[in-house]
Design a protein that fits this description.
This protein has 426 residues and is of the alpha/beta class. It is built from 13 helices and twelve strands. Helix content is 24%, strand content 13%. Helix 8 links the parallel strand 3 and strand 4. Helix 1 packs across helix 2, helix 5 packs parallel to helix 9 and helix 7 packs parallel to helix 8. The longest helix has 18 residues. The radius of gyration is 19 Å and the shape is globular.
Length: 426
């Protein structure tokens, strides 16, 4: 995680030219959160951090917490590990509940990324640390491998994403928060996602941060039954770095978000990325599920989709913000909210169709990559490696990780993706 931060701002005029009628919809989105805030300077002191969490005010967190704090809901943070000893996470991390097969290093965060995600979800704010959207929820940490782990013994002991997802599915966590991404499908990871869905888990993933250069399909966000989350700023405008396509399902705050600068945990930095958005969306779901513990994952998701901020037709989701800006307060303030049938998948159309390009075609392993995409090398697992061509990224939340035995390259928070656009209207 880089300490130096570069601000990206919001969409420029070229967004309006390219996106037509969607531009006004993305910018307004029922007023979005409509809260402006001064940015947090790099390496800002922890004492300043909560004043910079603009989205807490924008989402009216104080009002939501009168109804629900996420109590009784466990969230699996599948990431770089989670440090349970930060002031904001003391008592919030259930390290003893990590399945033994994937428990190695779960509480040893080697980048600071996973700890940031955990605090965004369930931080208590104690000691002037980050205040999570769902401070009553608990975190179950899962550490997955990354190339910043140089010790071969550690690499062998640390779980792959597929192993972590499957283990989380077998636990009593309700929500899987996955702020990482891969440039292609992995059969083992896909099977783990399907298994988690069969166990009734709700899964959120970052869609990626490389829209300005190589807007390519990212996994696990693009798998069926995973909710892909885009990043929005204080005005509800999509971040210009936020990946777009038919696998974007919802949007959440992702710009000017405080996060740990590095694994030394000495200070917070101003951060941005769809990693933050996925974590905040996961926390939002925890609030709703806590208030309605008898709902299914389908019903929790349906309620978030129904109440998302948008001014476009619900049956015509945006390529950039999906069904809109997540607003759990709109669910919580209605005690008799009707979430629909327990077994009805609110993303049935998307999950049945799968990812397609602008012509409606599904990607295939044999499809040739456009000239703008990085060269790939086939691996024994049928995946591709983009390490050589995409390791130079400006995303301050990016962390490279290896996926299982095939050692395909992943990027936590997004980065290198396969070039295909969207099935949705633009």
């Amino acid at each position: 995680m880089a300490v130096g931060i570069s601000r990206r701002g919001t969409w420029s005029a070229r967004f309006a030219e390219r996106n037509g009628r969607r531009a006004s919809a993305v910018c307004s989105a029922l007023g979005a959160w409509a809260v402006l805030s001064a940015g947090l300077a790099p390496s800002a002191a922890a004492a300043d951090v909560q004043s910079q969490q603009w989205y807490l005010t924008a989402m009216k967190a104080d009002e939501m917490w009168k109804v629900s704090t996420g109590e009784g809901v466990k969230v699996a943070v599948i990431d770089s590990g989670v440090n349970p000893d930060t002031s904001s996470l003391k008592g919030q991390v259930l390290a003893d509940e990590v399945p033994a097969a994937v428990a190695y290093g779960a509480t040893k965060d080697y980048t600071g990324h996973g700890t940031t995600m955990a605090e965004l979800i369930a931080g208590t704010g104690t000691g002037n640390g980050l205040k999570g959207i769902a401070p009553g929820a608990k975190i179950v940490p899962f550490r997955i491998v990354a190339n910043s782990l140089k010790d071969k013994a550690e690499l062998k002991k640390t779980a792959s994403s597929a192993m972590a997802i499957r283990a989380a599915a077998d636990s009593d966590v309700k929500i899987l928060s996955m702020s990482f991404g891969s440039p292609g499908e992995d059969p083992e990871e896909a099977a783990a996602i399907k298994y988690a869905q069969s166990k009734g888990k709700l899964m959120f993933a970052s869609v990626g941060n490389n829209a300005e250069t190589k807007n390519l399909i990212g996994y696990p966000a693009a798998y069926p039954y995973v909710i892909g989350v885009a990043a929005s700023d204080e005005s509800g405008t999509v971040g210009k770095f936020s990946e777009y396509g038919n696998y974007v399902d919802l949007a959440a705050p992702g710009l000017n978000i405080p996060g740990w600068c590095d694994a030394k945990f000495r200070s917070y930095c101003d951060s941005e990325g769809t990693s933050m958005s996925a974590a905040i969306a996961s926390a939002s779901a925890a609030l709703v599920w806590s208030a309605h513990p008898n709902w299914t994952a389908n019903q929790v998701l349906a309620s978030l989709i129904d109440t998302a901020g948008r001014d476009w037709a619900k049956d015509d989701p945006s390529t950039y913000l999906g069904y809109g800006l997540i607003r759990p307060r709109m669910v919580l303030e209605q005690s008799n909210f009707n979430p629909g049938a327990a077994n009805t998948d609110p993303l049935a159309r998307e999950n049945a169709t799968g990812v397609t390009d602008e012509a409606g075609n599904s990607p295939s392993a044999s499809a040739s990559a456009p000239s703008s995409s990085p060269p790939s090398k086939a691996t024994s697992g049928g995946q591709s490696s983009a390490a050589a061509s995409t390791s130079d990224t400006s995303d301050n939340t990016t962390m490279w990780v290896a996926l299982g035995a095939a050692a395909a390259v992943l990027v936590i928070g997004g980065g290198a993706f396969a070039v295909l656009r969207s099935r949705r209207a633009t």
